[in-house]
Amino acid sequence: MSWRAGAKSLLKRSSPGTLVLRIVRIFLLLLLAVLLLPYLVTPFYRTGQPVSALMAWRSLRGAPVTRHWVDFGAISPYLPRSVVGSEDAHFCKHRGIDWGALREALDDAEDGEVARGGSTITQQVAKNLFLWSGRSVIRKGLELPLALWIDFVLPKQRILEIYLNIAEMGPAGQFGAEAGAQYAFGRSAAALSPREAALLAAILPNPVKRSARNPGPGVRRLSGTYMARANTVTRCWRDNRGD
Fold it and tell me: What span, in angstroms and rounded, lies between the C-alpha atoms of 157 and 141?
């Protein structure tokens, strides 16, 4: 019997309900595989130069993408300090999620106030690597367990290194510290001064509306705050250069 005859025979014996159940089962298996893939891939990100979902999507659309990976030890020490001070003050204390900041953000939303950022750097790594931008309950539900897993399998310094190399830091597809520093200041990420590092931190997470290259009053004010915070943040990474 040929495979076509076998397929026709199988279809004849299968009721419409059975076919629907098989299709649903296949769909659920595919969905499960997609959901599990980030958990399987993340341990391999202890090394290498991962790209973000947004970088991949922009490349597929033919939009410009500029990213030059820089190892953590080759980045000015002022930048990780400024970014942690601005984005996630408890980065070295939490296990991927800052539950206190998350509760405050939820309380603000319930009170009708403008929601403050409750996402940790680890959550942003989870979102940037595997998910999509924009506010969504579904995305947040996927992001939270992923952040816990990333913090469990990757060292803090590696998480910060990945973030500094995949965060969007320019208005035209500049990703990562090196591309952001070259665009804003015409110098490498290794040579950033405390003020320049704070300016880059101040444009996160929206480098399209905020500019480190031509900072407005708001960005300058934020950068001053982040320069002060950078000197007081708790560090859980190796500072190989500078004080």
Answer: 25
Token duo for residue 77: 């020490």
- A 10 A CB-CB count for 18 gives 10
Provide CB contacts within 8 A for 48, sequence distance 6+.
none
Q: What is the torsional sign of CA 14, 20, 22, 26?
A: positive
pLDDT tens profile 128-167: 999 998 888 999 999 999 999 999 999 999 999 999 999 9
Is pLDDT above 80 for 99? yes
Nearest to 131 by CA among 53, 188, 57, 65: 53
Could you give the 3-state DSSP secondary structure of residue 66?
strand
Burial 192-204 (b: 16+ CB within 10 A, else e): bebebbbbbbbbb
Q: What are φ and ψ of residue 64, in 5° steps?
A: -65, 140
Indicate the DSSP class of residue 242. -
Rounded Cα distance between 168 and 99, Å, is 25
Q: Using CA atoms, how far apart are residues 39 and 51, in angstroms rounded to an integer?
A: 16
CA angle 153, 158, 161 (to 5 degrees): 145
Helices (H), 88-153: 99-110, 121-130, 137-153
Q: Which of 107, 141, 135, 131 is nearest to 56 (CA)?
A: 131
The answer to whether 88 and 80 are in contact (CB under 8 A) is: no
Mean pLDDT of the chain: 89
Contact 201, 209 (CB under 8 A): no
Handedness of CA 122, 98, 237, 39 (dihedral sign): negative
Q: Is 3 exposed, middle or buried (0-12, 13-18, 19+ CB in 10 A)?
A: exposed
